[in-house]
Amino acid sequence: MAKDGGVSCLRRSEMIGIGIGELESPPLDSDQVHVLAVDDSLVDRIVIERLLRITSCKVTAVDSGWRALEFLGLDDDKAAVEFDRLKVDLIITDYCMPGMTGYELLKKIKESTSFKEVPVVIMSSENVMTRIDRCLEEGAEDFLLKPVKLADVKRLRSYLTRDVKVAAEGNKRKLTTPPPPPPLSSTSSMESSDSTVESPLSMVDDEDSLTMSPESATSLVDSSMRSPGLA
Amino acid sequence: MEKLCDYFFIYFCPNLMICKNLFIGIAISNKLYIFFFSLLLPSRRVERAMDTLIAQLQRRFCDFTISLYHQGFLDDQFTELKKLQDECSPDFVAEVVTLFFEDCEKLISNMARALDQTGNVDFKLVGSSVHQLKGSSSSVGAKRVKGLCVTLKECCDSQNYEGCVRCLQQVDIEYKTLKAKLQDLFNLEQQIVQAGGRIPQVDI
């Protein structure tokens, strides 16, 4: 599959790939938000994956907590080997899953050294106060009530850019890239979307990010201005 | 049928040859009168006839969609799914609901099998299957199916065998009904597109 832009063409074969938990991102560009989605239900995985892609995130969807840990390289307590490849900006997980619940997955992530800073969002179909409190106490960033809507994901996206900016500044040291130009104000960035090409970090994905749907256009352009690491 | 159409076009309306496949398509979808009508008329009249056809189909589509919501088959999560559909993924909703119906079939059959073990029914298994079904029906906006899942879950939690069996039968009927209705809806969409029209945005 060629480089994935913000809006992807999700064909049936891709859906099945997501279903089997085989569909992983190709070697990642550091300039796109990468979300790991965990849900045992195929239908929910497809929907959350689409919701995230439409808000211009790169998504890896897996069907269990164990697969998530495997993907993150946390299953045998070793640090992730290729840190660049496994850059994850957000983990969104279902609560009720057979085997390992979302809560248990949250705990394992927060206990790890490499991923404890990654925001974790829990989704659940049940609005149980004690459950929500427990998750938030354990360090969950947010709690979404299912069924998840576009507005919920857009909300996540908006606070994610704040976190990603901090992470991107950290990443820049690892990637040895030149310092970015001072961020432009969001109004000017919305007027001319070519402002993204002025960044020395601009990559081929510019074309991809510019071809997305209007409602996500503003959020992506906003984020690229706030986090210079993104193109 | 093809040959007959060719002869009609060649002898009566040579200028319409290029559109012949479109007309054949329309004819096959039960609008034969427009097909034969159009053979004898100049193309402006034909365009108007086509516009009438498109408008009719679009009206049917809107009415049908609204009825599905009003009768409780769908809720606003279905509307949310439609928002995720675009030119890049024009069949997203159809593909998701197809996966949902496959899920229904699988989970209902698991539950039926569990309930068949008379005297030794694994209510935990039934409970976890209905929980999954409730989740996916909620995610696609299948309102009636979801409602029945809630009832089924209650029967299961109270280990009410008769209640479970009855409820499961209703879930089975309900998902099949929804499947047929959505198939009709998607067929209407296809007819509109084939006639050259755009699928209207329906405000519920």
Automatic annotation (TrEMBL), chain A:
The chain positions of domain Response regulatory read 34-161
An example GO biological process term is: cytokinin-activated signaling pathway
Query: Which SUPFAM superfamilies does the UniProt record give?
Result: CheY-like (SSF52172)
The source's domain of life comes to Eukaryota
Q: Which Gene3D superfamilies match?
A: 3.40.50.2300
The region called Disordered is annotated at 170-231
User: Where the protein is mainly located, per its record?
Assistant: nucleus
Q: Name one GO cellular component term.
A: nucleus
In which compartments does the protein localize? Nucleus
Compositional bias segments (type: Low complexity): 185-200
For this UniProt record, the keywords arranged alphabetically read as follows: Cytokinin signaling pathway, Nucleus, Phosphoprotein, Transcription, Transcription regulation, Two-component regulatory system
Q: Which residues carry this modification: 4-aspartylphosphate?
A: 94
Residue ranges annotated as compositionally biased, kind Polar residues, are: 210-231
- Entry similarity comment: Belongs to the ARR family. Type-A subfamily.
Q: What is this protein called?
A: Signal transduction response regulator receiver domain
Tell me the organism: Arabidopsis thaliana x Arabidopsis arenosa
Lineage of source species: Eukaryota, Viridiplantae, Streptophyta, Embryophyta, Tracheophyta
From TrEMBL, chain B:
Gene Ontology MF term list: histidine phosphotransfer kinase activity; protein histidine kinase binding
User: Could you tell me which Gene3D superfamilies the record lists for this protein?
Assistant: HPT domain
- InterPro entries per UniProt: AHP1-5/YPD1 (IPR045871), HPT_dom_sf (IPR036641), Sig_transdc_His_kin_Hpt_dom (IPR008207)
The record's principal subcellular location, in a coarse class, is cytoplasm
The yes or no answer to whether the keyword Oxidoreductase is present is: no
Where found?
Cytoplasm, Cytosol; Nucleus
Q: Which residues carry this modification: Phosphohistidine?
A: 131
Q: Which domain of life is it from?
A: Eukaryota
Show the GO cellular component annotation of the record: cytosol; nucleus
Function in brief = Functions as a two-component phosphorelay mediators between cytokinin sensor histidine kinases and response regulators (B-type ARRs). Plays an important role in propagating cytokinin signal transduction.
Could you tell me what this protein is called? Histidine-containing phosphotransfer protein
